[in-house]
Design a protein that fits this description.
The chain is mainly alpha-helical and about 200 residues long. The chain is built from seven helices and four strands. Helix 2 crosses helix 6 and helix 4 crosses helix 5. About 20% of the residues are buried.
Amino acid sequence: MLLSLRYWEAFRKALPEWMDFKGRMTMSHQNNASDPFNVALNYGYGFLEAECRMAINSVGLEPAVGFLHEFSNYQTKASLAYDLQEPFRWLVDLSVVHAFESDVLDLHDFYFTGDDYRYRFEPEAKQRFIGLLRDRFNAGVEYKGRVLKWDTVIEQKTNELGRFLIGRSQSIEFLEPSPKLERTDNRALRNTILNNSG
């Protein structure tokens, strides 16, 4: 929990003030996004969850039985899908940051609805963001001597998990493939951002 708080605190420091990003949890629930950044994160995580559910279904695993997230006896809570999302959340986080930095998304792309004062996407902005997510998930990465798309890697890792669970493999690991992220900043700038008390 503490690591998660620090992670989102680092994001908060790097984002423009107009986003009013305080963190992932609101006073009610994190699904009710009270700022544009959380709206995009929620939508992106939903996109990632769908990819994970498809991979789980293709392998034939039970999505409600997870290892990191609590087991659920009702169908809407897919604990295994949430588990499988964890190693790939960075895809969404990076996509959301890129969306705002590249002006794919901006403040005018969001609006308040009803009496709950929660942000929602404008439909056209949602389509632009979906396109950006698809591009990110379709990007290639080298894995076991081949170049695979990240959505294929998710399916491959789910297959590896299935083989491990039935004893056809003695181990499983999620560290590879690791992303090769190109940066336009440097360590000094990153340290300045992270050490900013504001």
